[in-house]
Write a structure and sequence with these properties.
The protein is α+β, with helices and mostly antiparallel strands. It contains eight helices and ten strands. The chain folds into two domains: 53 residues; 169 residues, D-Maltodextrin-Binding Protein, domain 2.
């Protein structure tokens, strides 16, 4: 559209406006400016909302739990219990429980889920991993799981050992001289028969709780472990 066409359209609108009665002119102006005002307010509101989310509504995860190839029916109940346990309001600071990770499907390992969980381990965005004997070795070979004998106190470790509740990851290691040997590392707590699993209805082919070696919230993880095993001994 060239300048002449634009000028002609403006002149046509002005002529049309002049031909309106006083009442019609008021209605036209009200509709015209009302629409502009509404659009401005909508845009302003959206901008304020985005800025608030970015600068003022940052949520800190104090404990992040991922269930892989496991299900939990009492998801909300567990999140509330953990928030209460850790003394956070669930808004600014929150414990989160995610159970949307199905690593194995009909075609084998889902590469998207694998990469998603792997990234969380790598960047330290995951504290507790609840999985099964089938999927834990996939991540254990990358040393993503904490050696529990170095994390929990010796008395609790001994009780878990006596009740056969420890899961050991076994791998072959080659030393500096080229000699291969088997290394067994306690990386998980088997919770199949615990009151915790029954209360929150955590089920799978034997749920096992592991602690991420890259977790930034080890103190809160220990509180979770004590809470999880509170009726086991």
């Amino acid at each position: 559209m060239d300048k002449k066409e634009k000028k002609a359209i403006k002149q046509e609108r002005r002529a049309k406006f002049k031909s309106l009665s006083f009442k019609e002119k008021l209605e036209y102006l009200a509709d015209y400016y009302l629409m502009g005002t509404l659009i401005t307010l909508v845009l302003l509101g959206a901008t304020i909302s985005i800025l608030y989310t970015i600068f003022f509504n940052k949520q800190e995860k104090v404990l992040s739990i991922e269930l892989v190839d496991c299900q939990i029916e009492e998801h909300d109940k567990l999140e509330k219990a953990l928030n209460d346990l850790l003394g956070v309001d669930g808004k600014k600071k929150k414990a989160t429980v995610s159970a949307n990770n199905i690593l194995y499907d009909a075609d084998g390992v889902d590469p998207e889920i694998y990469e998603s969980v792997n990234t969380m381990f790598y960047v330290g965005g995951l504290d507790v991993y609840i999985g099964t004997k089938r999927d834990i070795p996939i991540y254990a070979k990358n040393n993503y799981f904490q050696d529990l004998s170095e994390l929990i106190d010796s008395e609790l470790f001994k009780k878990l050992e006596e009740k056969d509740m420890l899961y050991y990851y076994k791998q072959s290691v080659v030393d500096d001289e080229g000699v291969e040997y088997s290394l067994s590392k306690p990386v998980g707590i088997i919770i199949s028969d615990t009151a915790f699993a029954k209360e929150y209805k955590v089920y799978s082919d034997g749920p096992i709780v592991c602690v991420s070696a890259t977790s930034h919230h080890k103190a809160d993880v220990l509180k979770f472990i004590d809470y999880m095993l509170r009726e086991s001994f």
